[in-house]
Amino acid sequence: MLKRKACGLALLLCFTFSSIGLASVDQDETIVVSATRTEVSLQDAPGAITVITAVDIADTPARDIVDILSETPGISLRGRGVGGRKTISIRGAENRHTLILINGRRIAASDAVMGHSNYENSWIPLEDIERVEVVRGPLSALYGSEALGGIVNIITKAPTDRWQGSIKLSGGVTSGDGGNNTNMGATISGPIVADRLGISISVEALHDEPVEDEDNPPFTEIEGREILTFSPKIFLTPFGDHRFELFASYSDEERDLVDSRNVSGVARVRDSLYKLKKYTAGLGWSGTVGPTFSKINLYRSQIDKDTINTFRHDGSQTFSPDIATNDVVDAQTSFQLAGQLVTLGGEYRDESIEADSLEQIGGKETINHKAVFAQVEIGLLDNRLLLTPGLRYDYHEFFGSEYSPRIYALYKLTDQLNLKAGYGHAFNAPTAKQVSPGYFAFTGPHQFFGNPNVKPEYSDSYEVGIEYFGDKITAKSFYFFSDIKDLIAYNQIGQVGRVRRYEADNIEKARIQGVETELSFELPHDLRLSTSYTWLDAEDRQSGEPLDGRPEHSAAVKLKHNFAPLGLNSVLRYQYVGKQYYQSGVDEAPGYSLWHTAVEKTITDQISIQVGVDNIADVRLRDKSEVFPYDERGRFVYTALRGRF
User: Fold this and answer.
1) Which has the closest alpha carbon to 226: 260, 271, 257?
2) Which of 113-127, 389-403, 596-610 is most confident?
3) pTM metric for this prediction
């Protein structure tokens, strides 16, 4: 009863605020590309969508995509159990169900194939980001099985018609032992040949000191990081709207931490060093051919990881390399047919993983994926009713074929008020490690085993929502429901001392439902308030226990103020993460709140300086419970200098 009341209250709240100011004029149109793989206004796009701009990112001392998304409705953070690491979960789905794209292109996914991985969070320099589009809900009909929960599409800056750039220098200190940070990022872009040839180059260097566990030195609470990322792009427009893009990115990353591992039944202290190299390189083309607008991409993305463990008691070392590679060709074409926009496309992908843990099957596994998809964007009733049906056919080398349909409807009750509803079916095959009988990994105090009996997972998801877009107010509220069959998880099968043993397996039936609300409005005196709230109910329907690591309630509030006479911009942010359960509902992690603030002073039209404090109250999750599999950075005082030219 309480949960139903929470749903009703959240919907009523959004309805109430959305009724304010119905006579407002049209606001500036925001164009998004992720919900349909075509350009469409945010107000006409199917699905629940949040757009995070470069200005939003600048309000925070963000270091990677997790920091950028941490206050987004429908997003929760899942722990990876090593070094305070966190990954992204959309609407309570597994982190491997979140597909991260850069300009609509895949990166080599590591979360599902590398132990304790969150290596997908720092592929490109943050200064290169124009905006981030988050589409919640299953998008397998457009993007394949990894989009079971939704997608995060990072849109980067394109070359401009004149030379311009930006630079950011920032640094900060924490309240604890370690955790100090320095960060430098820069981007420059412009034409080499006017209207024909342009270039964009971005670079970032980040240093995070490790944070020592004050309750258990010398162990590490939050790992240290050294990251250097570089991203060049060249654009050629030889004629008309035909554009070729030569793109690449490179990230050299090292992480260090101190933990322990059982050796012959005795816990031994070890220094762990993770060396990561991430590459992307490819060629893209887009242009109009006859009545069609088409795109083709050919690219490779790869993660090389080498883990070096040095044991302090005898100086011995172990090495654990992993390489994940994606080779992709994708294409799509869009055209008008009987007044409706039709999009057809396909994808060919070779996905490979090389690891010592696959030694019994040759050390390497390659899986071939083939897919075709179709989508129609239909306007009826003088375009007041917009229908978006879609269908994708996937062929998986090991598990055969699967169809993923999607249908979405948007009805414009008024010019500002939308009613939305949709359904999507999704399919996700297990990885080579999960189904390999010879797979064995020993990471920290845990052992992981493969299981040849693991089956693919399937989901049927529904959502209904209402949106209001006004001049002063934007309000959104969605109810979502997912019925998941054979959810893939690691179940504990035993324990020897501190060492827990896990085996890949299926949860026969799982259910995830919830409500998301967003509300933002402009107040007098140049104030702007943005709020969001998510209620989540995720349950293993076999046992009746809550699914691990899904907070029941989460909320965020942001208050911004612009005081133009003094060139000051200030922001106050609040985050709440509710209680969540682990170990199949046995262990409860309590809820917690975080407060952050920052003030930016514009010195000239090109230069500004920002000072801020994150986690003002110095909340430490270990003081609340040892159950948390991730950590929040302690009180962090920072300053940032930004320049534009």
Assistant:
1) 257
2) 596-610
3) 0.91
